[in-house]
Every structure is written in C-alpha cells, then in structure tokens.
Amino acid sequence: MHKEDLLNQIITTLTADLNTLTTAAKTAHAAATHTECLPDNKYDTTGLEASYIAQGQANRAQDIKQSLERYRKLVIRTFDDESPIRLTALVTIEADDGSCRQLFLGPDAGGLKLTDGDAECIVITSLSPLGRALLGKVCGDEIHISRGATRKSFIIVAVV
Predict the structure, then answer these.
(1) What is the pTM assigned to this prediction?
(2) Does CATH number 3.10.50.30 belong to domain 90-159?
C-alpha cells in the first residue's frame, strides 16, 4: 500500500461518514422538534430522547469534521529502517505466530480499516497502547503490549 493512497482512502471514508452523520443529525433534530414529539404528560420523554440523539450525532459529526481537517493538512513523511517511527509512518509488525499486520500512524480515526486488494491496513493513533509502543522505535525493534494478564510481543519488520 502507498501512503498517498491510504491518505486518500481515509479522507474519502471520513467524508462519507461526515455526510451520513450530518444527515442523521438533521433528521434526528427534525424528529425532536416535530409536533408529535411534544410530551403528552410529564412521563413522556420522546422529544427529550430524540434531542439527545440529535446532539450526540451532531457532536460525532463535529469530531469527524475535525479529523478530516487534520488529514487534509497532513504532510506525509518518508521513513527508512533507521528512522524513528512517528506520525505518518506505515509500519509492518510481525506477531509471535508469524502473522503480519500493517499499521498507519495517523492523527485521528484510530481503528479505521483500509483495504487495497488483499492487503489490509489499520489506522492507529499515538494515543493507543500500540501507537505509544511504536513511537520512537525503528525497524527490527521488538515491542510488547499488555492487555490485562495477556502480553503480546511484535517485531517491527518494515517502516515506510
């Protein structure tokens, strides 16, 4: 995967998510302010619940809008085997069982899965345990991630 293609995929996905959430927030707002949502008695909270949904969707849309702006302004850096990992690094890690995973260190949208043919790449941020473990490491370094009593080890096999 090329980082420029990944960046374009992230922007396209976030733009689609923003459009969907904006529409959903408008629809929820219209439902919350509709005359049928006026309370019939003091126990009828239909309008209040609809307004909570509308506000939550509007907040999420604002978060996505901010992420989208960060990605549009993002400057892609190039890395080699000796470069410390930081923002915009495309990292391949290998687990103890030999399975490999590609990760893109981005400013936002952690957990977003991107595909290019058979290849899959997951966006992580420096706020995640895996992102924190990768920061400053170089190709060939070993990292350890603990999740409760479980500890996983990975070797960094490529950084671009």
Answers:
(1) 0.85
(2) yes
